[in-house]
Design goal:
two-stranded parallel ribbon, 9 strands
Length: about 200
């Protein structure tokens, strides 16, 4: 949407843009980086503000009030939303304040897939200056999910000890299998946010 808006000429699809608002904060709070309004209050203010603006191009993201007493209830609700076409859930406490840094108040929940892949390559880990660290950076893996042939790199989920050991044994890893967990498959037949789960020495 940025490319449609930030242009000197009218894009043919620009008139179809919609702004979906899920939160609101006053500019003085934003400048002070401090807000003492709960999420419930902010959503009420957002509804009132959009009513004043009265634009068909701006809508408020719908939210639901849910209380999960256990993991089972959460996963059941997630399954329902995924069937409805949603990517996952975003959980927020209704009494939570707006924070200006990383917070544990917001939690993203998505379905996680796990599959076994064959190791076909590797890369060394480097620091932000490009200096080699003598440890594993990522593994290149391949496999089939249904009729789709998947080839992807997995650079996340490893413990520090595993990165060191795997890099030392990198040649012997070729041809072995690892189990990855990931969110979804991309249109380019790769995994989205792949993370290492375990080495499948039984395969």
């Amino acid at each position: 949407s940025s490319s449609l808006v930030m242009t000197h000429s009218m894009h043919p699809k620009a008139d179809k843009l919609m702004f979906n608002a899920f939160d609101i904060i006053y500019i003085d709070c934003w400048d002070a980086k401090k807000c003492d309004l709960t999420l419930a209050t902010r959503k009420k203010h957002l509804k009132e503000t959009l009513a004043v603006i009265n634009s068909k191009r701006i809508s408020q993201v719908k939210s639901e009030k849910n209380v999960y007493v256990d993991e089972k209830g959460l996963q059941e609700h997630l399954a329902v939303k995924v069937k409805q076409g949603y990517e996952g859930l975003m959980l927020k406490p209704i009494t939570g304040m707006y924070t200006f840094k990383r917070s544990k108040d917001w939690m993203k929940v998505k379905p996680v897939e796990t599959y076994d892949f064959k190791i076909v390559g590797y890369k060394e880990e480097k620091d932000k200056f490009g200096k080699r660290k003598g440890s594993l950076g990522s593994l290149k893996v391949t496999g089939k999910i249904g009729k789709r042939k998947i080839t992807t790199w997995c650079g996340g989920g490893y413990k520090r000890a595993e990165r060191i050991k795997f890099w030392k044994d990198r040649e012997s890893l070729i041809g072995k299998f690892i189990e990855l967990k990931f969110d979804v498959l991309t249109v380019g037949d790769a995994t989205r946010f792949p993370r290492f789960k375990r080495l499948r020495l039984d395969k």
